[in-house]
Amino acid sequence: MSDIRAVDLPELRSDLLAHYEHPLVVNWWSERPVRAAMSVEDEMGRPQAGLSPTGNQRRLDEINRLGSAELFFVSSAMTKLAIAAADSLPSFKLASSDVPTLNGFIIFEDPIAEDPNTKGGHGEPVYISGASWSVTNMGLRSPVLWFSFYVDLHRTFEAEVAEGAITEEEAERQKRAQPRFAYTMDAAHFVDSDMQLNEDSVLNLWGRTILTAWLLMRQPLAKVSDLEPDRGTRKRLQRAKQKPASVRLIELRRPTRNEGRGDEGTRDYHHQWIVRGHWRQQWYPALQVHRPVWITPHVKGPEGAPMIGGEKVNVWKQ
């Protein structure tokens, strides 16, 4: 499987920006059928017109979105945690302060979902591996969070090789002919309104994992660092007339021995037990809001006491 590194993101973005300007791509987007990214309701909850830019407007918006985006890369371990925690993410009112930046481009080291509406050239699964986003007004009653979701074509080509559908030479030719990531679908949601995450929509299926990653990266369990492009990458970006940009790397920080155990209080426990990972609605007085906070799996009870349900196990592994 093709490896992807955080330091690759500036050039991957540069490839996408050049791709969107290619005459054949411009023509394809102009003729592409589009659907509404979001239905708009009035104050009484009655459906109004949908938010549905034309294909070419979507292409132009994506160029602007990517061109000004801050770059994020989520490590494999953090991706796995985000996927697992997203399953139980409670609904909450999304605020502008919950979005890390007005324009962003995020890539996960591992895919976060399979696209049920798209297949590879020989029927292979196509996996969602990232998204761009922006917060914009769009002339509506409140700001809108827009997601454009991306699939990793290299993974699809390699799956086709594994199935014997194409040769390795053909896969390499396909990789060289187009950017690694391809725009697949989009979705939008009003900011400062409740995120109802039980709907059968791409915002629910894929966006909730990104929302979870945003929440997790603000907690102590995340290690966040900025990576600068190396000299060779800077030169290639400058030749492509792209400004070199840093990448924010989101990793899962290994906890200390007693971290996450919580306050044992004054009760006299005689056993240890495992507390599974779960969400807690944390009150933030300064913001006057509740926000989901992930409580990591941990062992409670006095150290050395017998474990309820069997021997002590490692409940946190990076």
Structure overview:
Helix content is 28%, strand content 30%. It has 8 helices and 16 strands. The strands form 5 sheets. Strands 3, 5, 6, 7, 8, 9, 11 and 12 form an 8-stranded mixed β-sheet that branches. The chain has a two-stranded antiparallel sheet with strand order 1-2. It has a two-stranded antiparallel ribbon with strand order 4-10. A hairpin with a 7-residue loop joins strand 7 and strand 8. The relative contact order is 0.15. The C terminus is likely disordered.
Specify the number of helices: 8
Q: Could you give the count of β-strands?
A: 16
Question: How would you describe the shape?
Answer: globular
| Strand residues, percent | 25-35%
Runs with pLDDT <50, length 5+? Answer: 260-264, 310-318
The gyration radius over C-alpha positions equals 22 Å
Q: What average pLDDT do the residues reach? A: 81
**Into which percent range does the helicity of residues fall?**
25-40%
Largest sheet: 8 strands, mixed
The structural class is: alpha+beta
Intertermini distance: 20 Å
Order of helices and strands: HHEEHEHEEEEEHHEEHEHEEEEE
Features:
318 residues, 28% helix, disordered C terminus, alpha+beta, globular, two-stranded antiparallel ribbon, 8-stranded mixed sheet, 8 helices
Compose a concise summary of this entry.
By secondary structure, this protein is an alpha+beta fold.
List the helices and strands and how they pair.
Elements: H1 9-20, H2 23-31, E1 38-41, E2 47-51, H3 55-67, E3 70-74, H4 76-86, E4 92-94, E5 103-108, E6 113-119, E7 125-136, E8 144-152, H5 153-162, H6 168-177, E9 181-190, E10 193-195, H7 202-216, E11 222-227, H8 231-239, E12 247-252, E13 273-275, E14 278-284, E15 289-295, E16 298-300
Parallel strand pairs: 3-5, 3-12
Antiparallel strand pairs: 1-2, 4-10, 5-7, 6-7, 7-8, 8-9, 11-12, 13-16, 14-15
